[in-house]
Design brief:
By secondary structure, this protein is an all-alpha fold. The chain is built from 13 helices and no strands. It has a single domain, classed as ABC transporter involved in vitamin B12 uptake, BtuC (Orthogonal Bundle), CATH 1.10.3470. About 80% of the residues lie in helices and about 0% in strands. Helix 3 packs antiparallel against helix 4 and helix 12 crosses helix 13. It is globular, with a radius of gyration of 19 Å. It is a multi-pass membrane protein. Keywords: Membrane, Transmembrane, Transmembrane helix, Transport. InterPro entries: ABC_BtuC-like, ABC_TroCD.
Length: about 280
């Protein structure tokens, strides 16, 4: 079967659209998170989402998003919105939430197991489904709406995001409501992570946040250039990853991460060449 024939199926088109939109949103927010030294917030929140999914499964909630989204957003706000007020800060808080949520989630799924294939369910949640048949038209529309929100946020609040990314204390001193913007970023990040779990799984979400930003930083230095390059890098790598997955029958999430790693190595090499040339 040729690639053109694959695209005659709606689920393939859904996977490509959702993948591109999630990659775009993740990369845009990823630059801010990496520069604020919150790279692993994706890991922490994805594990919180895994724990929430386990809880939703135990409670037999028909639509787990009703429970997963609010819990993930709440913990995202706790991580970013009240950072100066908590006693446990930064990577320690993220690590604690990550390990705790993952462990408790798996424990709940074992104790209240109602599935005949617990290992398969857990593996699909952690690493993404091996099939792209799970995406629906609802996923597509939710991702479209989320992408519009993220893009508009960057357009209208670019200067504010720039200021809180590089010097939050100075931004606060000049009257910027840093807590409000941090909470906005946290909420959007949480929603993207919840959506991305269907595509790449909870353990691989950080790759969509970290690799595009770090790859762009190998070549470019200005904030605007890094954001644009990061977005293009992420979209291209995700598209290539999904196409390889469709043709080769490999897991979608793992394939996208492999392409991201390859792209990062390539950009690192180009960055070194440019540094020598200068």
């Amino acid at each position: 079967m040729t690639l053109i024939e694959y695209f005659s199926y709606p689920f393939v088109r859904y996977a490509l659209v959702v993948g591109i939109l999630i990659a775009l949103c993740s990369s845009l927010l990823g630059v801010t998170l990496v520069l604020k030294r919150l790279s692993f917030i994706g890991d922490g929140l994805s594990h919180v989402a895994f724990g929430a999914i386990a809880l939703a499964t135990v409670m037999k909630v028909s639509n787990d998003m009703i429970l997963v989204a609010p819990i993930t957003i709440l913990f995202a706000i706790l991580l970013m919105g009240v950072g100066e007020k908590r006693k446990i800060k930064g990577d320690a808080m993220i690590a604690m939430l990550s390990v705790g949520s993952l462990g408790l989630g798996y424990l709940l799924m074992n104790i209240f197991n109602t599935s005949s294939n617990l290992g398969g369910d857990v593996c699909a949640t952690l690493f993404g489904s091996t099939s792209i048949l799970t995406l629906t038209i609802t996923d597509v529309w939710v991702c479209i709406i989320m992408s519009i929100i993220v893009i508009l946020m960057f357009i209208f609040f670019y200067n504010k995001l720039f200021s809180i990314t590089f010097d939050e204390n100075f931004a606060k001193a000049t009257g910027v409501q840093t807590s409000a913007y941090n909470m906005l970023i946290a909420t959007v990040v949480a929603m993207i992570i919840v959506l991305a779990m269907n595509l790449v799984g909870s353990l691989l979400i950080s790759a969509l946040i970290i690799f595009p930003a770090l790859s762009a930083m190998r070549i470019f230095k200005s904030f605007q250039q890094v954001i644009i390059c990061s977005a293009l890098f992420s979209v291209v790598c995700t598209t290539i990853g999904i196409l390889i997955s469709i043709i080769g029958g490999t897991p979608v999430g793992s394939t996208i991460v492999a392409v991201d790693i390859t792209g990062f190595i390539l950009f690192s090499f180009i960055g070194k060449l440019l540094k020598v040339a200068r």
